[in-house]
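Async update (no meeting this week)

Hi team, since we skipped the sync, here's where things stand on the single-chain job. The sequence we agreed to prioritize is pasted below, unchanged from the tracker. I ran it this morning and attached the output directly underneath so nobody has to dig for it. Comments welcome in thread, and please keep replies under the output.
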Amino acid sequence: MAIISSKISDAIAYLNNRNIIGIPTETVYGLAGNALDVDVISKIFEVKNRPTFDPLICHTYDIEEVKKYVRFIPNLAYDLFQKFSPGPITILLPKKDIIPDLITSGLPSVAFRIPNHTLTLELLKNISYPLAAPSANPFGYISPTNAYHVLNQLGQSIPFILDGGDCEVGLESTIIGFENGETPKIVRLGGISVEEIESVTGKINIQTSSSKPTAPGMLESHYAPKKKIRIGHIDTLLVENKNKKIGILSFSKNYENVSFINLILSKNNNTTEAAKNLFSYLRQLDDSDCEIILTEYVPQHGLGNAINDRLKRACA
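Output:
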């Protein structure tokens, strides 16, 4: 089983020895390896059982480092990096040849971000390469938000997990692409809201689903528990599933008059708090003895759009 430790020196040793490891970020835990080493990248796809047509995100610690691996950074992309990095924003940029085609699934653009986690930033500053790091879970399953989620899913396949505690954001990063190298669009909703992005870009298009993804997280079915999950008006779903053992994932309402498992994303009606709890609560329900999970869309402001995106894909 993987060793769990907060020692950065151990993480560096494993990475330099061409291993892949679990790392913390503010969004979710990543399955990380040298982004310049094709054999290491292949291990990431193999351990996750991830299709090679689904590209990976690269992580580094500074905008100047990003410049080493991309042909150029549009002015608006630079503005987004400046405002939201380190943080949960990823930007698709035209790659240099040093980035292996396997990282980008053969596409001309590579996804880069600067994670906002003290341990991982320190790790990145002390290695000579960026890290490819998709979420540290089997492909299509709920993303991990602490080291023990990683251990339970991939602990027999990797040697080490860098323990950075619970993730602060709990949702993957927002990904921005550029059409014709200039016009921005959101290709994955995530830890920075549409409203925040538009404070820099102005009105922005959203194009977040594709059977041929240009960025991670664009497939219709993703982030899913093993148990069946249905989304809609919970009161209606309760009637339709009255003969089943039910788990409820509600936004803010407490279904205290029923004898089911009920986890509440945010008693304060706060979408940021709900985002932080989403994947962890889905795991708790998936590990419970319920037969079906019932959930609902949350208000579409703040991180609500990103939460609804994950719930919709989980139900697909």
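Quick observations from my side:
The chain has a mean pLDDT of 94.
DSSP finds ten helices and 15 strands in the chain.
Reply here if anything looks off.
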